[in-house]
Amino acid sequence: MPQLEIDQSLQNFFHKSTVALALSYAQDDQHLALVNEKFCALTGYSGDDVLGRNCRMLQTSHNGMHAKNEDARTKIHDFLQVDGPMTVRTPIVNFRKDGSPFVNLLFMSKLKATSGQVRYILASQFDVSRAHAHLLHDYDLELDRALKTIKPLLDDHNIMIEGTLATIANSTTTIAQAKLTLAEWEQNSPY
């Protein structure tokens, strides 16, 4: 299936964003079409390393470590279904290019054409494993601003972003759980 060309205004938005962003095509294997510098700084991968690949590559390190992520994978699988939810937000253990693990608070939203067909998937990533509550709160505010900013850009191209950022009830609990998840993973890792 031929891939869609990414509009310049959307590319500019990505490059100026203050949060880590990735855009994948909704077809086939949802391979990455666009990432920004914040994504590259967070993961250690360059755009050339990841474009054309599915983001699930972040679930395995270069030396073969693999996080199970059962709950997160179920939520993402449900999200990717045609009749699935329009957004998902879940913590997931990912690996940087150097092999170091982190708990990624992943947010994903479907971007639909006016015909109703999902054309892209917008994702944002945030390392909650080593964060403090105020940093997560600041990230939530920045992500909310990013979603509000991208909406008119997409509207101009007859693409709709579905849903809005689900607020986190308790940032402290989210961070504590992420740190516990990472500590348990590192303790049980065979590497």
Automatic annotation (TrEMBL):
Source organism of the structure: Agrobacterium bohemicum
GO molecular function: kinase activity
Taxonomy, superkingdom: Bacteria
Keywords: Chromophore, Flavoprotein, FMN, Kinase, Transferase
Signal peptide from the UniProt entry: none
Protein name according to UniProt: Histidine kinase
Pfam families from the UniProt entry: PAS_9
NCBIfam families: sensory_box (TIGR00229)
PAS domain boundaries: 29-129
Entries under SUPFAM superfamilies matching the protein: PYP-like sensor domain (PAS domain) (SSF55785)
